[in-house]
Amino acid sequence: MSESFYGYCGLLASVWIVFGVFIAAKRYQGYNHAKQFCSELGAVGSPTEKFSPLINNYPLAVLFCLFGYDLIASGTHSILLMAIGALVIVHGLGTLVAGFFPMDADPYTKNPTTACKIHSWAGFIMLLSLYIAPVLALFESSFTLYFKLFSLACLLIAVYFTVTLAKAIKKQTNPGTHQRLGYGAQLLWLSGLSILVAQ
C-alpha cells in the first residue's frame, strides 16, 4: 500500500459509512432512517446488533486511524496538521469503542446500562474530535483560503444540525435526519481534507 492510499482513507471512510448503514438497515425490518439513530442498528437486541459493528464500526475505525496516521506522517513540520491527524485517530478509536459497547434498545431510556454510557461517551468524543479538527484547519498555513472557508462552512453546518438534533431528541421526533446531516457535514469536511492531502 502506498502513502496515497492512506491519504484517501478519509474519503473511503465517508463513502463506506453511507453504504454500510444502508446495507445494515436493509437487514433491520422496519428501520426508519429519519426517526432512528445510526447506533440503533447495533443496539442491544436489534436484528443487526452483531452485523452492524462488523461492517461499520470496525472497518471504519481502521480507515479513520490510517488516515490520521497519514496526516501525522505528512505533517512532521506542522504541529497543527499532526494535531488534526491525532484527532482523526481519536475519532477512529471512538468509532471502535462505540461499536464494541452497544447502546440500549430504547435510546430515550432514563436508566442506561454501563455499556450504553460508554457508547454515548465514545459518540461524544467522536463528535468533539471532528469539531476541533476543522477549527485547527482554519489556522494551518499550508491550507488554501478556499479550504479554510470550506472548513468553516462544514463546521457551522455540523454545529447547526447538532443543535437541531438536540431539539429533535427532546421532542422525540426525527433525530435520525438531524444526526445524519450533522455527521454528514463532518464527513464531508474529512473527505475534502482527504482529497487535499492525497494529491
Write the layout of secondary structure elements.
Elements: H1 3-26, H2 51-55, H3 57-74, H4 79-100, H5 114-137, H6 145-171, H7 175-198
Question: Which stretches are low in confidence, meaning pLDDT under 50 for 5 or more residues running?
Answer: none
Measured distance between first and last alpha carbons: 16 Å
Q: Structural class given helices, strands, pairing? A: mainly alpha
Q: Identify the overall geometry.
A: globular
Instruction: Give the rounded overall mean pLDDT.
Output: 95
What is the number of E strands? Answer: 0
Main sheet overview: none
Give the DSSP E fraction (strand runs of 2 or more residues). under 5%
* Helix-strand sequence: HHHHHHH
Helical residue percent?
A: over 70%
Give me the Rg, rounded. 17 Å
Tally of structural domains: 1
Q: Count helical runs.
A: 7
Protein name: DUF998 domain-containing protein
Keywords: Membrane, Transmembrane, Transmembrane helix
Pfam family, one: DUF998
InterPro entries: DUF998
Key structural traits:
single chain, about 200 residues, mainly alpha, about 70% helix, globular
Concise account of the structure shown:
The protein is mainly α and 199 residues long. The protein is 72% helix and 0% strand.
Describe the 3D structure:
Keywords: Membrane, Transmembrane, Transmembrane helix. The chain crosses the membrane at residues 6-25, 55-73, 79-101, 121-139, 145-169. This is DUF998 domain-containing protein. InterPro entries: DUF998. The protein is mainly alpha-helical and 199 residues long. It has one domain (3-198). Helices cover 72% and strands 0% of the residues. The protein has seven helices and no strands. It has helices at 3-26, 51-55, 57-74, 79-100, 114-137, 145-171, 175-198. α3 (57-74) runs antiparallel to α4, α5 runs antiparallel to α6 and α6 runs antiparallel to α7. The radius of gyration is 17 Å and the shape is globular. The two termini are 16 Å apart. The mean pLDDT is 95.
